[in-house]
Amino acid sequence: MGSELIPPGLLLNVDLRCQRLLLATDTLNDLAVTVRHDGQRVQLRNLAGRVWGGRVQGQVEWPTDPDNRVAPVQYQLGIRFATLDYEQFVAHLRKPEAPVAPAKGKGAAMPALRDLLLAANGRLSIDIGHVQLPGDQSLRDVQMRLQKTGELLQMPVLRFRTPEGGKGEATATVQVENLRFVAADADVTLRYATLDVPRLLALVASLTTPASAAPTARTQARAARRATRKEAQQNTSMVANGVLSAVLRVEADEVRYAAIRGTRFRLVSRLLEGEAQLDNCTFDAFQGRISLRGQMLSTADRAHHPAQAQVQLENLQLSPLFATASAMGLNVLGGDNIRGSLRGVVDLRTNLGPTFLPDLQTTVGYLKTDFRDLELLNVEVLMEALKFIKAERSSHLVFEPVSSQFILTNGQLLIPGLRLNSNISSLEVSGRYGLNGRSNLFVGLKPLQALFGNNNKRVERIQEGEPKRNADRKLTYINLRRDAPGEKYKVRFFQKGEQRQEQAVLRQQYRALLRTERLDTTMRLGR
């Protein structure tokens, strides 16, 4: 640029029309512009044309440079796209591998449009009706304002809408060196009346995929190697190529995740190359509150997204919790069969499938729980196992507060040993409870205590919070086994020997999973 385009002493005021103007990697179509040169300044006024599938208009100017040096260019441009493919747009923003060389003796190499914009200073407005993101995700009504000053590119305004009714706002700052984006930070806020969490996760994955093309870098050494790789890689996302890190904040009045319904959803996440770090997420559900933090990786295989999370459960009511779990297809008690509240912490490793729901068979988790005011009502399998006592007792079990620890693996809860005090007897439960319907449980109890104890006094004592006092008597064990979903449990009495063997195997597997999966057992329950 500069006066090299216009010879010294040539004054101009001319309207130009050009059907096609070829740059290094771009083509300007249907170009119309008024060129003015007053001897001191070149002005391109009333500029209009088509580029990258959008319509551009505005003006450009620069002072005449008698020494033929590159003159400081100022621009005020606006581009309007009806529809824009995000991956193609990012491809346009990448620095070309090699500029188009001019004919011999014809001057400097022809620059690309993005180089012209990054070499100059000015303001650029971009309005887009529909943005197509990877993975069938999209945005609409996008308004972006950019301001370029020296080596700093600022985005003071970005507004957009999501197909689900969300409204988004963002700001960003980009550092430019040698016509390349070398670092960028963005802050994005999304607000919803009703949020579908899988759709949000899909949007996040579309911006950070693929991880395999640019693995996560956390150290300066790996960052240096990544900078070298960027010279050759053709990434489809500024996040995925390691240039951009973004803080994402999401707010929603109501939230849905499969059958789970919640309110007052708040999320803060950092989007990095190939991953989303979840710093904090909270929402109200099941008449309590759920908090979590963790990480989701975005892989080249869009059907698999490894994830981990630490979840805090605060005073969840068991009846709506179990009713929802049952509605999700898990083989658990119905909402009418259980009462009470739950506090707990969960450390999870899972894989999110194409619908961004956990794959139960590949999920591993450690659960530490406190149950309060626990009651079981009309649980058929327990009534069958306790049919030697009156149905009015076995149909309604009331428990003292109980703390427990479990491991979830292969769709089963591993219960190494759960001690409970109820209105009918002291109990101990161990075994495997399958969320898909297959289970093998051992229930230890004191038959005489169940037969002849004063049920009303025991219920009263439990409800008043008086701890149970009794001698440590031997338990009689009942085996409850079901080999397939929908089958009735097989009940076998006097299974102490088998229970001891199974419990030893179970505890060994329990310890091995804690060690190999590196599950965090140090998490503390909230108050």
List the helices and strands and how they pair.
Layout: E1 12-22, E2 27-37, E3 41-51, E4 54-63, E5 74-85, H1 86-93, H2 113-119, E6 121-132, E7 138-149, E8 152-161, E9 167-177, E10 180-196, H3 197-208, H4 220-230, E11 244-257, E12 260-272, E13 275-285, E14 288-297, E15 305-317, H5 318-327, E16 338-352, E17 364-377, H6 380-385, H7 391-394, E18 396-398, E19 402-409, E20 412-421, E21 426-434, E22 439-445, H8 447-452, H9 455-463, E23 476-482, E24 490-493, H10 496-516
Parallel strand pairs: 5-6, 10-11
Antiparallel strand pairs: 1-2, 2-3, 3-4, 4-5, 6-7, 7-8, 8-9, 9-10, 11-12, 12-13, 13-14, 14-15, 15-16, 16-17, 17-18, 17-19, 19-20, 20-21, 21-22, 22-23, 23-24
What features would you describe in this structure?
This protein has 527 residues and is α+β, with helices and mostly antiparallel strands. The protein is built from ten helices and 24 strands. It has helices at 86-93, 113-119, 197-208, 220-230, 318-327, 380-385, 391-394, 447-452, 455-463, 496-516; strands at 12-22, 27-37, 41-51, 54-63, 74-85, 121-132, 138-149, 152-161, 167-177, 180-196, 244-257, 260-272, 275-285, 288-297, 305-317, 338-352, 364-377, 396-398, 402-409, 412-421, 426-434, 439-445, 476-482, 490-493. The protein has a 24-stranded mixed beta sheet that branches. A hairpin with a 2-residue loop joins β7 (138-149) and β8. The protein is rod-shaped and about 115 Å long. It starts with 11 loop residues before the first strand and ends in an 11-residue tail after the last helix. InterPro entries: AsmA-related.
